[in-house]
Amino acid sequence: MEAYPNNLPIVLTSFIGREREMEEIKALLKQGRLVTLTGTGGCGKTRLALEVAMEVMEEFPDGVWLVELAPLKETELVVQTVALALGVKEEAQRPLLETLTDFLKPKKLLLLLDNCEHLVGACAQLMERLLQVCPNLWVLATSREGLRIAGEQIYRVPPLSVPNLTPLPSLGQLMQYESVRLFVDRARLVRPSFSVNDQNASAVAEICHRLDGIPLAIELAAALVRGLTVEQILERLSDRFRLLTAGPRTALPKQQTLRAAIDWSYELLSRA
Questions:
Q1: Cβ partners under 8 Å of residue 192, min gap 6
Q2: Among 174, 187, 171, CA closest to 230
Q3: In whole angstroms, what is the distance from residue 72 CA to residue 119 CA?
Q4: Distance in angstroms between the alpha carbons of the first and the last residue of the chain
Q5: 63/5 Cα distance (integer angstroms)
């Protein structure tokens, strides 16, 4: 990764599953220059986009550049934030968009535009402008809704695969499900000795099933293995918004609790 220009973060946890989704998204990037990953809050859009970006990096000699939009509140800051990520500086007596456009025109690069949903109008206008005049620009966006501009290909990110509960798969079969593998991987971060066995297999499977294969929810549940058994976690899932609050302190607020993830989506809705 260091051999190619980029500002992608070094990811500190393993990436589980998603092989099919990765191949499908890479195929879409070959068909068009704007792909938007959509889906419910916590379904793993950002992590999936980062993994795709790392895999296609060698195809973009001028780099892969992450633009994080979640902290922004004002639409006017979108152009400035993209420019900042690319190292483009404002010039006196010249609109920043013009400077940014001239910078991008000769370059072949991929912009990873993350968390567009609360600024979707501004993102749509900027990306349409840049894609129209910069022939070698590709954009991989994440948003809870599409940008709705010409040429956009929308890829809806599905939940992780979850096991059926009746009949319960064997232990070997259970570990083939992405949601179970994610639960086990994250549980081992807080309790290295954790494993799925005959005694807790049904509880692990039901936790993943009741959380609908949503990666954020599964990770929050797995973190509780530090102080609870999986059976105790399962018992308390009826009050999941109060239970699933153990996200990393350094994560975005909307990724620290399940309630915050739902609230982020709710606040984007119109009154109607």
A1: none
A2: 187
A3: 8
A4: 46
A5: 4
Residues in the chain: 272
Residue 257 has pLDDT above 90, yes or no: no
Share of the chain above pLDDT 70, in %: 86
Helix (H) or strand (E) holding 188: helix 178-190
The SS3 of residue 142 is strand
**What pLDDT, on the 0 to 100 scale, is given for residue 262?**
47
Tokens 């009050």 belong to 239
**β-pair partners for 114:** 68
pLDDT higher than threshold 50 for residue 208 = yes
Contact 223, 190 (CB under 8 A): yes
Count other Cβ atoms within 10 Å, centred on residue 269.
7
The torsion region of residue 229 among left (phi > 0), alpha (psi -120 to 50) and beta comes to beta
Dihedral (Cα; 165, 171, 174, 180), 10-degree rounding: 100
User: What's the one-letter identity of residue 197?
Assistant: N
Supply angle C-alpha 45, 25, 187, rounded to 5.
40
Dist CA 181 CA 209 (whole Å) = 13
Interval 143-153 mean pLDDT:
96
pLDDT confidence bin for 259, thresholds 50/70/90 = very low
Task: From 94, 97, 114, 106, select the one nearest 134 (Cα to Cα).
Answer: 106
Instruction: State the CB neighbour count (10 A cutoff) for residue 54.
Output: 16
* Secondary structure (3-state) at 200: coil
